[in-house]
């Protein structure tokens, strides 16, 4: 059971705390959606697989830039919440805009903007929670990252029904050829590893020109709507704290800007986001050749494991010190990587 002091702290700061948690849910939605949709986005932008991978680099590089930029907004609560509102709203706008990107460069710019917003969210949410709870912040930071995992778990599940079953750009020779359905079936079987003679996937050209057959736009539009309550929650907090321009002359309900600005040791989600993105393309390539739908479940499994781990560490961070938990995690990671298959 949590002691009364922790519960009392949460009751005192619950509005801000839940707002920061919801912002990290938005972070998770954005970081996990690119992986399972990358092949459909390749078709939408008429790009090669090599070209579309630059979108990952764009997102991750600007996420790093945004993490540094977020430090400039940490001095006052008002600047932090304004930045948080802007960034969570930008993520919804980017989700809505992605289906309109018909070139890989335009898509890279969109994901760069989203990455910048994610980086700012990452820094602000961690810093502000440490400001609020200081030495008692560990358990609240664990919950923060749990919400990131929860968002990342939801994202691939929403995208899954809209992913193309087969090749999503059909070249002219496919659409005109009467045997095209059989070729598609053969390709699907090969991707699933069920073909009698499975060659290299390069024998099936990944067309960049032709008829685009994908419904992935609906996934991004749904995610834009799912994310909208997050900037609304930030705006509600700003209204409650009288930080909106219309309350500029009113006395604030709280004065937390004078709190010490302790920089947290923020856990990096950047490596997790990169891994979850590339695991999908790895799964559909040789030697695994998994079906597109099955490969999409890898993202969900990966983020589900992280979410369960975060949930467990909410309790463990309360019972044990951070060094002990860190040593245990590092040892467990090392042994899992060195254990022979």
UniProtKB/TrEMBL annotation:
Give the transmembrane region(s).
20-39, 51-73, 80-98, 104-127, 139-159, 218-239
Top-level division of the source organism's lineage: Eukaryota
For this UniProt entry, what is the primary localization, expressed as one broad class?
membrane
Recorded GO cellular component terms are:
membrane
Tell me how this protein sits in the membrane.
Multi-pass membrane protein
Query: Which family does the entry's similarity section mention?
Result: Belongs to the major facilitator superfamily.
Please report the name of this protein according to its UniProt entry: Major facilitator superfamily domain-containing protein 4A
* Gene that produces this protein: mfsd4a_1
